[in-house]
Every structure is written in C-alpha cells, then in structure tokens.
Write a structure and sequence with these properties.
Main location: cytoplasm
Pfam families: FliS (PF02561)
CATH superfamily: Flagellar protein FliS
CATH architecture: Up-down Bundle
Helix content: over 70%
CATH class: Mainly Alpha
InterPro entries: FliS, FliS_sf
Family: Belongs to the FliS family.
Number of domains: 1
GO biological process, one term: bacterial-type flagellum assembly
C-alpha cells in the first residue's frame, strides 16, 4: 500500500456522510476525466477501466441513498444517478461514448457543486446528518 492509499484510507475512515458523498463525487469526476482522456488517446482498455470505476462510484452513490429518511430528494437523486449509470453503460456498448462522458461529467460537476455548497454552509454538527444520506 502506498502512502497515498494509506492517506485516502484514513481520510475515508474519518469522514462524515457528507464528506463521503463529496469523496465519491471526486472519484466519479476523476474517473470520467481519465476515461475521456484515454478515449482521445485511443487507449480503449484504459477508457473501459476508468468508465468501470465511474460506474462503481455511481453505484456507491445509489446504494448510499437513504430512501426512508431522504424522501423525494433521495428518490430524485436515485433516478438521476440511475440515468447517469445507464447513459454510461449504453454508450460503452457502442454508443457515443464521448458524448455520454461529457453529459454525465456535466451532471456530476453540477451535483458536486451543490453538495459542496451544502458542506460549506453546514456546521460540523449538521454535516454528520444529511437529508437523503
């Protein structure tokens, strides 16, 4: 395990639910950017690996939703995450992969900005409990 991996492990272990959501978005966005770059370089193996990682991040976001306490927010996010996931999967099986990556990347960046705004406006005690997660 590298020093960076150890650092990330400590970062995840000590993270609040809101911080974990932001970390998951970071993985999603980084993976999409790497997939986009790999596609431009015609490195299709790397592109597929990074898309797979992006899909894993979306699955993590979907499974982390608290539909019992999150109400319509959790339901709406679940639908959006499922759409993003479906869009990447369909594109990776013969569709416009670059277009799908751009679309999902734009959505992920917008959503992450919203979560970051919530984190910035939240006190440390409120960041422990997030509606929808």
């Amino acid at each position: 395990m590298t020093g960076y991996q150890k650092y990330r492990g400590v970062q995840v272990e000590g993270a609040s639910p809101l911080e974990l959501v932001l970390l998951t978005y970071d993985v999603l966005i980084k993976s999409l950017n790497l997939a986009k770059f790999a596609g431009k370089e015609k490195n299709y193996v790397a592109e597929a690996q990074h898309l797979s990682r992006a899909i894993e991040a979306l699955v993590e976001l979907i499974t982390s939703l608290d539909s019992e306490n999150g109400g319509t927010i959790a339901s709406s996010l679940g639908s959006l995450y499922a759409y993003m996931n479906r869009r990447l999967m369909e594109a990776s099986t013969g569709g416009d992969i670059a277009g799908a990556i751009d679309e999902v990347l734009a959505l992920a960046n917008t959503l992450r900005e919203g979560w970051q705004g919530l984190a910035d406006g939240d006190s440390s005690s409120q960041s422990r409990q997030v509606n929808g997660y």
